[in-house]
Specification:
By secondary structure, this protein is an alpha/beta fold. Helix content is 52%, strand content 15%.
């Protein structure tokens, strides 16, 4: 078993640890968000951590109406500029908490009076020490280059903030009970492997989803690039029809992430349209109409939108890991990559 697979399978335990570790700090952050006269939240992250911020953006804006904007580090590190942080708070997310660009942005923001929420898997990191509020992922050391369990933990603490700020205790309950559904995903390994084996020799994939699942589409695209060396690109289903639809020809590989919920009809419609255009559809879904249309199907358990982030993320990570192994690639140590990436 690869280290990546072993780490992604331990997510139920990681979520329980993460919940227990951060309840009080989450309450303090939510109190600041509610009482601080904030106009918006700024997020700053790279790679997998960036994809977690996209899930957070949808969740926070849907649930609280507080705008969430992305900060591009080069504004500080290259162009020596920066935001006016008035009425904002900066969420800096880094698995290691050691990235040089992250720290340069954090120090610049602090100098302008901005409060910092640091989210790391390292209590002793520079980011943890510089933060006004530190959320500790409590995921244990992550050895595989491809982040899996820390992604789940990042979603956990970010959704906890949404739940506390919006006053939606059911979100926490969903995270607490999602372990049962993640155990079901563990038992789907053979079915996921069959799907991975069926498309492992294809080289180009379009990945589609919408809404709160867009961060997961971006995350699958990243995992397939770094672990399987595949050319992948992810789109919102609504954006896809505004031009990129022209990419579709006979047997184009389209991976559709389609959890039931507010986007149900959109997922059914795009699946039907893709089928008419001759695409090969690989669907991860619990929507019967989507699964019936698809060429390769991974049926997932029905979920709330909060549970879906964790259930789909773990399944997609497993899909990328199985494909990597089938290709004879070591998913724990992809070529050209290291666990901690230094950028500017």
């Amino acid at each position: 078993m690869s280290i990546m697979l072993n780490e992604l399978l331990c997510q139920p335990e990681v979520l329980n640890s993460c919940l227990a570790q951060n309840r009080q700090t989450v309450k303090e952050i939510a109190a600041f968000l509610k009482n601080g006269n904030l106009s918006h939240i700024v997020t700053m992250a790279r790679g997998t951590s960036y994809n977690a911020t996209l899930c957070f953006k949808y969740a926070m804006e849907i649930s609280t109406g507080i705008p969430v904007v992305t900060y591009i580090p080069s504004l500080t590190t290259v162009y020596k500029g920066g935001l006016n942080y008035k009425d904002s708070i900066l969420f800096a997310i880094s698995q290691s908490g050691m990235s040089t660009d992250t720290m340069e942005v954090v120090k610049s923001a602090k100098a302008k009076g901005c409060k910092i929420v640091g989210i790391t898997n390292n209590r002793d990191s520079l980011l943890a020490k510089e933060s006004d509020y530190h959320l500790f992922l409590a995921a244990g050391e992550e050895k595989s280059v491809a982040a899996t369990k820390t992604f789940a933990a990042q979603l956990c603490v970010l959704y906890m903030i949404v739940a506390e700020t919006a006053g939606i205790p059911s979100v926490i309950k969903d995270i607490e009970k999602v372990s049962t559904k993640l155990s079901h995903v563990k038992n789907m390994s053979d079915a996921v492997d069959v799907a991975a084996k069926a498309v492992k020799d294809e080289n180009r994939f379009i990945i589609l989803s919408r809404g709160m699942s867009m961060g997961l589409a971006d995350e699958l695209a990243l995992k397939m690039k770094e672990c399987c060396y595949k050319f992948t690109i992810s789109y919102s289903t609504s954006e896809f029809i505004h031009g990129p639809l022209a990419l579709i020809e006979d047997k184009t590989n389209v991976i559709l992430l389609a959890p039931d919920g507010e986007c149900r009809n959109d997922f059914i419609n795009i699946a039907a349209r893709l089928k008419l255009l001759g695409a090969k559809i690989i669907a991860f879904s619990d929507i019967k109409d989507v699964l019936n249309i698809s060429d390769i199907k991974i049926k997932l358990p029905s979920c709330t939108k909060w549970e879906a982030s964790f259930v789909y993320a773990m399944t997609l990570q497993m899909f990328a890991e199985h494909m990597s192994v089938r290709l004879g690639i070591n998913p724990d140590s992809p070529r050209n990559l290291k666990k901690i990436t230094i950028t500017k």
